[in-house]
Design a protein that fits this description.
Length: about 150
């Protein structure tokens, strides 16, 4: 069984908790372990906050999919995109350098990397940034979608 949803949100601060609550509600209903749900919700919040801050048009899109034992989330905006040094794919966590810990911007990307199993930062053709990330799920005993 799988679950997926997609939101088109206005580039407003109020859209961030809306996306986060929808994700947390979906995870709770499906029976995902609360710690995993929390990590994904924080990563989603950071990605949405980046879209709200950097997108150049009025909307951005969030898509989430639970399939099997994995949740994949994508946040796409219409902003200027990532600088070449930020377009990357990561499978492991890099520690924050002293410079990065005190930087005004960019800590959210490191936080996303720290909370998920795999993340990819890339630009859309034309313009716009896409953050996609996934995490292996753990299930509660009473999970509706538990993978056998």
């Amino acid at each position: 069984m799988s679950i997926w949803w997609s939101l088109h949100l206005r580039r407003e601060a109020a859209s961030v908790p809306l996306a986060r609550r929808l994700l947390l509600g979906t995870m709770e209903t499906a029976g995902v372990d609360p710690d995993i749900s929390y990590d994904l919700s924080v990563a989603l919040s950071e990605a949405c906050a980046n879209a709200v801050e950097h997108a150049s048009h009025g909307e951005y899109r969030v898509t989430a999919r639970i399939e099997g034992d994995r949740c994949r989330i994508e946040v796409a905006d219409s902003g200027p995109g990532f600088a070449p040094d930020l377009r990357r794919t990561h499978h492991s966590v890099r520690p924050l350098s002293k410079k990065d810990q005190h930087a005004e911007h960019g800590r959210g990307l490191f936080l996303i990397e720290a909370l998920v199993d795999h993340v990819h930062f890339h630009n859309r053709p034309g313009h716009g940034a896409v953050v996609s990330f996934d995490k292996i799920l753990k299930w509660r005993d009473d999970a509706l979608l538990r993978v056998s």
